[in-house]
Amino acid sequence: MRHLRKRHKLNRPQDQRRALLRSLATALFLHGEITTTLAKAKALKPYAERIISKAKQGDLHSRRMASKKIYDQLTGNIMCADCKKVISVDQLTEEGKCAECGGKIISETVLRKLFSSIAKEYEGRNGGYTRIYHLPPRRGDAAPMALIQLV
C-alpha cells in the first residue's frame, strides 16, 4: 500500500517524469515564471523549492546536487566571476574584464544564476519561494492552466 507516499506521477514513467521536472525547473529559474498545466505546476513547486533550499547553502556539495536536478543551459548574459554580477558589454574594459572589480568575465548559466542571484534573494526566507496562480483553461483541450513564478 502507498500510505504516506504522495508523489505526482503525471501519467509518465519515472525517467520521463524526472526529465520533465528537470526541464520545467530549468525554465523556471531561467525566466522567473512559466505557464504550464496545473498538475505540472503542483509537481514542480516542491521540486524547485528543494533546489533553492540547497542553493542557499552555497557549498560545493549543494552545487553538485543542484546540477543533477537542473539542466545547466546558457542564459545569454555575461557575469563577473569575482563579484558575481550580471554585466552588459558596455561595462567591460578594453582588456575584456569587469569595470567594477577587474575580474574575469564568464558566461552566465542557469546554475550560476541560481547560486549567485536567486539564492541570495531568498537568504532570509525559510520557504515558500514559488507561487501558483490559476489561469483560464487551455483553449484546445480545456486543461486547467497555471502560472508558477518565483516570489
Characterization of this structure:
This protein has helices spanning 14-31, 38-57, 60-69, 110-121, and strands spanning 33-37, 74-80, 86-87, 105-109, 130-135, 145-150. The protein has 151 residues and is an alpha+beta fold. The chain has a single domain, classed as Alpha-Beta Complex (50s Ribosomal Protein L17, Chain: A), CATH 3.90.1030.10. The strands form two sheets. The chain has a three-stranded antiparallel β-sheet. Strands 3-2-4 form a three-stranded antiparallel β-sheet. The longest helix has 20 residues, at 38-57. It is elongated. 20% of the residues are buried.
Kindly report the CATH topology.
Answer: 50s Ribosomal Protein L17, Chain: A
Main β sheet profile: 3 strands, antiparallel
- Average pLDDT, to the nearest integer? 91
Quick one: CATH superfamily? Ribosomal protein L17
The CATH class turns out to be Alpha Beta
What is the CATH architecture descriptor? Answer: Alpha-Beta Complex
List the helices and strands and how they pair.
Layout: H1 14-31, E1 33-37, H2 38-57, H3 60-69, E2 74-80, E3 86-87, E4 105-109, H4 110-121, E5 130-135, E6 145-150
Antiparallel strand pairs: 1-6, 2-3, 2-4, 5-6
Please name the defining characteristics of this protein.
151 residues; alpha+beta; 50s Ribosomal Protein L17, Chain: A; three-stranded antiparallel β-sheet; 4 helices; 6 strands; elongated
